Structures are given as structure tokens and as C-alpha cells.
Amino acid sequence: RHCRTMSIISPQYPPTNRPSRAQALFSFATADREQSVLRAGQPVDIAETAERAGSAVWCRLVVITDKYSQHWPWVPLTFLAVTHVRTEEMPGHRFHSGHIEPTRGLACTADGSRMVTGSWDHTLRLHSSVDGTTLATLKLPDGIQRVAVCDHEAVRLVAVACFDGSVYLVHLETFAVVGRLQGAHMGHVWSVAWDRAGRRLVSGDLNGKMAVWDVASRTLLHRQTGHSDSIADIAMSADGRLAVTASWDRTLRVWKLAANGDCACVQVLEGHTGSVQACDLSSDGALVVSVSDDLTVRLWRTTTTSSS
């Protein structure tokens, strides 16, 4: 089947104590029909947080899915499925997101207690991951393709990639717009990613252009063209020195980000025969994982001579 999203669970715990991503997704696929989160429809986006409970580590995974109504087949009903994943059990629950058009953005707060969703219906919603309650709703000028949360001590913001060519900054507590990054993209902003400290933001658009922003000053640091088609996803290393972009031109590009905001492509990852839909980086930036419409998942090393 086509895969449109993936990510790496943060390796903050030893691998022996951490459920693997493949294990979690296998649990989704093989769970009892009444419990399976995939019965809601096609997975669109996934977010995760990790927490330690006694000697075990639980990874809270949130899957966003679309299921088209039998009465109005052109209108997707978006569901959020929340589950705690361990090797032997998968308790969870499912609820409607409240959006009335496709939901394409999903992110969790650092503690996993709240979730943010963005939709083509122009709304951004804050949900409780406990019972699915909508805690706040914000209307934006245009459709939303992707959201990214920075839940840091000094920065608590949601970056919202919008169809009007802007990236909106929304405060997590007040859920109000506190900034707008514009001037770099002429078309839909299709992807967005934070560095861990929340100092810089990287965005990509439907035309294959990438932009690096200084969040504090709300200024554009660098604009770069490399891809010949839309940038579907962006990931950054934990130290913010590397970024990887996944594109519909069937390639991934690894970028080195300088302290002054300059960026340069240091590696082009070629091998997929279909559009690359999602990517992620290991915490040290040494490995890249990608999924594509060619029905493959690939693992790459971030060196100029690496191959999948």
C-alpha cells in the first residue's frame, strides 16, 4: 500500500527498553478489528511522544486518518486515534477531530497531553489526548498543510504551514497568532520543521523552494532552490546543523545549516522511483529514513558517498 507518513521515535532511551516503530505499526495492523486504529481509514500523519512509567517506556502514538462518508463520498471524516504502545498491549481510543475538510497536519506537545491538528478547512485545533476534547480552535486565512510544535522551556509555539505562502506562529498557551513568516514562498507552504531549541525554522513549498527563518526576529535568513518539485517533508537533526528534505522529484537532499542561517546542499539521495512523501533523521543526524510512492522504505547514511 502507499505510505504517506513516517517518523523515528526519539532515541532518548536504550533500544532494549523502547518499542520499535515497526513493532508499533505492526500492532496497529494486526490488532483486533474493534480496537484497530486503521479501521478508521487511510493514515495521513503520525506523531509520537515517549514517557517512562516504572521500568517500562511507553510511546504514545497518535494517528490521523481519513474515512470518506458513504453519503458524501467527497467529504473525508477525519479521526484521531490515540494509543499507548508496548510489546504486549495496545490500549487506546478514537475520536472525531472536528475538522470538516481533510486534516493534513498533526503534532503533539512534549508531554503528549495535547495534540494540534491543522486542516484544509482553515482551522487549527488543540485537543486533549486523554478524551479528545477540543480545547481551542483558531481560524486562519487559508488551508493548512502541516503543523510542527516546539515545546521548549523558552519557546512554546506551533508553526503552521499555510496555503497563502506564510508560516504562522501560534502560541501553545493562548492559541493566538504571535507571528507570521512571509516573503520566501510564492505558493503553498507544504512542510515545516523546528530545530530543537526553537531558534530556527525551516519551511518548504509546493515549488521546491526551502527557506530558513530566525524565529526570534521573524526574519528570513536564507532561501534555497534545489528540488524540481514540491517539498513534501522536512526533518532536522537534534543540534540543528543538518536538515533533510523529501520531494516529489523522487529525491532527498541533505543540507548543512550554518550558524548565520546559510545553507548548502551536501548530499542528494537518489534511488526512489516514486515521489518521496516523508523523511526523518536520527538524533545525531547520521541516518535518514524515507518512504515513497514506490512502496519502499529506505535507510541512508548522511555522507557524500552513502547509498540506501
Secondary structure: elements and pairs:
Blueprint: H1 21-30, E1 42-53, E2 56-68, E3 76-85, E4 92-96, E5 103-108, E6 114-119, E7 123-128, E8 134-139, E9 144-151, E10 156-162, E11 167-171, E12 177-181, E13 189-194, E14 200-205, E15 209-214, E16 219-225, E17 231-236, E18 242-247, E19 251-257, E20 263-270, E21 276-281, E22 287-292, E23 297-301
Antiparallel strand pairs: 1-2, 2-3, 3-4, 5-6, 6-7, 7-8, 9-10, 10-11, 11-12, 13-14, 14-15, 15-16, 17-18, 18-19, 19-20, 21-22, 22-23
**Spatial sequence of strands, sheet with the most strands:** 1-2-3-4
> What would you report as the Rg, rounded to the nearest angstrom?
18 Å
Write the element-wise H/E pattern from the N-terminal end onward: HEEEEEEEEEEEEEEEEEEEEEEE
Total number of strands: 23
The overall pLDDT, averaged over residues, is 76
